[in-house]
Design brief:
It comes from Bos indicus x Bos taurus (Hybrid cattle). One of its GO terms (molecular function) is ATP binding. Pathway: Pyrimidine metabolism; CTP biosynthesis via de novo pathway; CTP from UDP: step 2/2. About 30% of the residues lie in helices and about 20% in strands. α5 (about 180-195) crosses α6 (about 220-235), α12 (about 380-390) packs across α19 and α15 (about 445-455) packs across α16 (about 465-480). The strands form 5 sheets. It has a 9-stranded mixed β-sheet with strand order 14-13-15-16-24-23-22-19-20, sandwiched between helices. Strands 1, 4, 5, 8, 9, 10, 11 and 12 form an 8-stranded mixed β-sheet that branches. The protein is an alpha/beta fold and about 650 residues long. It has 2 domains: about 20-355, Rossmann fold, CATH 3.40.50.300; about 360-625, Class I glutamine amidotransferase (GATase) domain (Rossmann fold).
Length: about 650
């Protein structure tokens, strides 16, 4: 167990769990339907089976907001709802239409970490080791919270929970049915998880945003829709808000915005017993007033309850767009939310950040060398961490995706054009990033990219496998250990620089990784990364790996100036490497991208961007302070002076 955790997940929260954004990326707005619960009334944790009795908690009531998509839309907007409820403690749950226990696998009854990444998007890791869908990463980044694996509800989890209860005899021999047993379990799970603190202050959330995955009419989602049809009456109207998101297509041939998909999806939703309080219309261009009034008339809502979300310049503009259409005022009145003056302060910071993003002039180019570049969602958190860091230093990010196989000699023979284009990208980059991954495919190209960055003193960051490959490359080319390899690629390697962790991998690759938040202790005060983290003696970051650097070779590597500046609390597992006499050659065994926030960028990624723009030394000499131009304001001074990075954090 991580020293930072102290208690097991089951001790930290109830035994039963529960489980937009821009338009061109995973955090973009997509179709959603939302429900909201609210603080000072009687919505509490269910007793008994979960469906019968509700009692009032000692703390203020928690409002719930549930989301479901209409035609052509799937949920993804809920993160923005949380951001436009400033000054309130927000938690979130996401319901997936998947028959599996884990949260990140698109198959039946799979362990979430076992699905090939080339077949799906990123596996996002939570503090408690939960492997979930990248959408929960969007929640964490937008709301600046830390969720648990039980915030992700799947069909498999619910059915397994009900089956276990039946086997224990909890139902006393009754026939177990979808209604009421499955629907009761959904409601019980949501209410238990809605009370779990997620913002680090150990206070119960005041708002719970619930995203119902899929679209209206999906067979898999019917039990969940029925569960929330019942739930709205138990929660009472003043505690429950339903938000429906639907696409308003605009055919290029006519340019006319069509409302029929929205009308049909709202009719289907109302037929299932849920009437939307807000209808959010997604479109490529601003929706015309006549179209808005038509939707209002046929969908039985007031015009001000029709919210228009068109394509915007960045993710950060979405909460501002929602606020400009009166969302805060609506929720304040609809749910009796006591939103104070802190709302304007926080939204002002968010608005300044969005404005600043659009005014960026300078560009920093980073080459991401990976093996899953054809599906860029595989690196969603990496991209966001780089974007957060670039914005913090007042630069626009130019991320160049390079398939590592294209850098290999075999590609030069088979496809010379692709080979030279890949190397041309790499040579133009201001910095190089090799992220995590698994398997031998493409590792030769990654090793060549690492060697190029090291020998030419180009800023480099290796994450997880990227760090392991950096050590292998260094052993081969600087220690002349030509047979240096990883047991992941060559089980009988003559020089095993990277080895498996027997306690986590007893011959079984399924569900055996070292997961979740772990503490890393700095061995020396003379470390770039330690300074970037605020000169602290230790840090806590999220991990996802089953291989480690061989401790028996550490002394040889350090004799050649490759320092292992960070270790685990036992001093056995190498966590951070730094190369002397290099602008920035850093490798980390953990995944810092999972903890990056828009106003609180990840230090390793920030260091890469600072080094790539030539500002790292100035930043370190000034005590890790940012210039006035690097704050979320209108200032444009390029000198590094007062404000610290901590000022970027939402207060």
């Amino acid at each position: 167990m991580s020293p930072s955790q102290g208690r097991t997940p089951s001790e930290r929260r109830p035994p039963l769990g529960a489980p937009a954004v821009p338009l061109s990326d995973p955090e973009a707005l997509s179709g959603v339907e939302s429900l909201t619960l609210g603080p000072e009334q009687g919505l509490g944790v269910p007793r008994g089976r979960g469906a019968g009795t509700w009692h009032s908690p000692a703390s203020p009531r928690c409002r719930c907001s549930a989301s479901r998509g209409g035609e052509g839309q799937s949920p993804g907007l809920s993160q923005a709802w949380g951001r436009v409820r400033p000054g309130r403690r927000v938690t979130g749950s996401r319901r997936r239409q998947r028959t599996h226990f884990g949260a990140a696998c698109f198959g039946a009854w799979h362990n979430p970490g076992c699905q090939p990444r080339a077949h799906r998007s990123e596996v996002f890791v939570l503090n408690d080791g939960g492997e979930v869908d990248l959408d929960l990463g969007n929640y964490e980044r937008f709301l600046d919270i830390n969720l648990y694996k039980d915030n992700n509800i799947t069909t498999g989890k619910i059915y397994q929970h009900v089956i276990n209860k039946e086997r224990r005899g909890d139902y006393l021999g009754k026939t177990v049915q979808v209604v009421p047993h499955i629907t009761d379990a959904v409601q019980e799970w949501v209410m238990n998880q809605a009370m779990v603190p997620v913002d680090g202050h150990k206070e119960e959330p005041q708002i719970c945003v619930i995203e119902l995955g899929g679209t209206i009419g999906d067979i898999e989602g019917m039990p969940f829709v029925e569960a929330f049809r019942q739930f709205q009456f138990k929660a009472k109207r003043e505690n429950f808000c339903n938000i429906h998101v639907s696409l308003v297509p605009q055919p290029s041939a006519t340019g006319e915005q069509k409302t029929k998909p929205t009308q049909n999806s709202v009719r289907a939703l109302r037929g299932l017993g849920l009437s939307p309080d807000l209808i959010v219309c997604r479109s490529s261009t601003p929706i015309e007033m006549a179209v808005k009034e038509k939707i209002s008339m046929f969908c039985h809502v007031n015009p001000e309850q029709v919210i228009c979300i068109h394509d915007v310049s960045s993710t950060y503009r979405v909460p501002v767009l929602l606020e400009e259409q009166g969302i805060i005022k609506y929720f304040k009145e609809r749910l009796d939310l006591p939103i104070g003056d802190s709302a304007s302060s926080l939204l002002s910071k968010w608005r300044n950040m969005a404005d600043r993003y659009e005014r960026l002039q300078k560009t920093c180019s980073i080459a991401l060398v990976g093996k899953y570049t054809k599906l860029r969602d595989c690196y969603a958190s990496v991209f966001k961490a780089l974007e957060h860091s670039a914005l913090a230093i007042n630069h626009k990010l130019n991320l160049m995706y390079i398939d590592s196989i294209d850098l290999e000699q075999t590609t030069e023979v088979e496809d010379p054009v692709k080979f030279h284009e890949a190397w041309q990208k790499l040579c133009k980059a201001d910095g190089v990033l090799v992220p995590g991954g698994f398997g031998i495919r493409g590792t030769l190209g990654k090793l060549q990219a690492i060697s190029w960055a090291r020998s030419r003193k180009i800023p480099f960051l290796g994450v997880c496998l990227g760090m392991q490959l950096a050590v292998i490359e260094f052993a081969r080319n600087c220690l002349n250990l030509k047979d240096a390899d990883s047991t992941e690629f060559e089980p009988n390697a003559r020089v095993p620089v990277v080895i498996d962790m027997p306690e986590h991998n007893p011959g079984n690759l399924g569900g055996t990784m070292r997961l979740g938040i772990r503490r890393t202790v700095f061995k020396t005060e003379n470390s770039i990364l330690r300074k970037l983290y605020g000169d602290v003696p230790f840090i806590e970051e999220r991990h996802r790996h089953r291989y480690e650097v061989n401790p028996s070779l550490i002394s040889q590597l350090e004799q050649k100036d490759l320092s292992f500046v960070g270790q685990d609390v036992d001093g056995e597992r190498m966590e951070i490497i730094e190369l002397a006499n290099h602008p920035y050659f850093v490798g980390v065994q953990f995944h810092p991208e999972f903890s990056s926030r828009p106003m609180k960028p990840s230090p390793p990624y920030l260091g890469l961007l600072l080094a790539a723009t030539g500002n790292l030394n100035a930043y370190l000499l000034q005590g890790c302070k940012l210039s006035s131009s690097d704050r979320y304001s209108d200032a444009s001074d390029d000198s590094f002076s007062e404000p610290r990075l901590a000022e970027l954090e939402i207060s």
